[in-house]
Structures are given as structure tokens and as C-alpha cells.
Amino acid sequence: MRAAPESTARRRARLVAVLLACAALVACATPRSGAERAPAAAAAKYFALEHAQQRQEIVLYALGLLGAGYRFGGRNPEAGLDCSGMVSYVVEQVSGLRLPHHAASIARQTRPIARGELAAGDLVFFNTQGRRHSHMGIYIGDGRFVHAPSSRGKVRVERLDNRYFAQRLDGLRTLAARD
């Protein structure tokens, strides 16, 4: 019975270390460019966070999940997470708002953005199964994102310019309210 409290304490210590180490990364996130805009859907109502700083909290929370196990259909770190379960879990923990547990549904409910607008806390989508938006992650800045892949079974950080993901990137979305 002693191993569980030690494991929890070690996990909390790792979370605190990751949060502190990543604060600088979040502060240096890519600024949004007003020059490039994604096409706007007429009268579209998209999911939006209430406060701009929640995007930074989403990044920090996602980084705190590094190493959590993968589980198809999973939506909590103790039992395991899949990609959309990880995103919906993080958003709900930070904002209290709930997203669906399906990558394509999340893509439909969030506002598209152009590549030049991509900032920490935005969502990245990939075609990994022969259909649009079949995989997703949370962009953390500096060309990197956190996701819950089925291969190697742990939440981890990848680069957008990784050959596998660069060829499959098929959507960028934001949780931020329109400026």
C-alpha cells in the first residue's frame, strides 16, 4: 500500500517541475499575426475559452500529463487517455467547459486559424487513419505539440516538422475567442 502514495508524490513533484520549467516556454509562445487570417464561416459560433490566460494553463496542464498511459476511448489520466480524451480532459480541468470526445467533432466546434496564427494552447489535427481530423494534440509553441498516441502508449511531445506528422497535418484550430 505504500507504493501508491510514493507514486502520487513523485507524480506531483514531476508536475510541479514541469510546470515551472514550462512557464518560460509559454511566455515565449509564437505571437499571433494579424496579416494572415483563416477563412471565416458566416455567422459561425465556435467554442471559446472565457479567459485568454486559460490557453497557457492548457499548455501547462497538458505537459503535466506527459507519460500518462494511452487507452482507446480513455478520458482520464489514471485509466489512460486517447488523443481527443486528453484534449477534452485538459480543457475541462482548466475551464470547466466540456468538449466532445471525438477529434473531428472538436474540429467542427473550434475556430479554424491560419498557420501564422498558431500559438501555444491551440489545437492541431492530423489525418492518420485516412480521414480528416482522425488525430489531434495541443500545440505548446516552438513547433511542438503534446498528444496521446497509440504507438509507444504514452502522452508525449512531438514536433510538427516530424516527417510523419508534417505530411498528415490537416487542421489548426483555436480555443481563443475571436479578437
- SS elements, strand count: 8
Query: Uncertain runs with pLDDT below 50, 5 residues or more?
Result: 1-6, 15-43
Any idea what the shape is?
globular
Helix count equals 5
Listing every helix as H and every strand as E from the N terminus to the C terminus, the arrangement reads HHEEHHEEEEEHE
Q: CATH topology, what is it called?
A: endopeptidase fold (from Nostoc punctiforme)
Quick one: biggest sheet? 6 strands, antiparallel
Q: Which radius of gyration do the C-alpha atoms yield?
A: 16 Å
Strand order of the largest sheet: 3-8-4-5-6-7
- Give average pLDDT, whole number: 82
Distance between the termini: 51 Å
Which architecture would the CATH scheme give at its second level? Alpha-Beta Complex
Number of structurally distinct domains: 1
Notes on the structure:
This protein is of the alpha+beta class. The chain has one domain: endopeptidase domain like (from Nostoc punctiforme) (endopeptidase fold (from Nostoc punctiforme), Alpha-Beta Complex). 34% of the residues lie in helices and 17% in strands. The strands form two sheets. The chain has a six-stranded antiparallel sheet with strand order 3-8-4-5-6-7. It has a two-stranded antiparallel ribbon with strand order 1-2. The radius of gyration is 16 Å and the shape is globular. The N terminus is likely disordered.
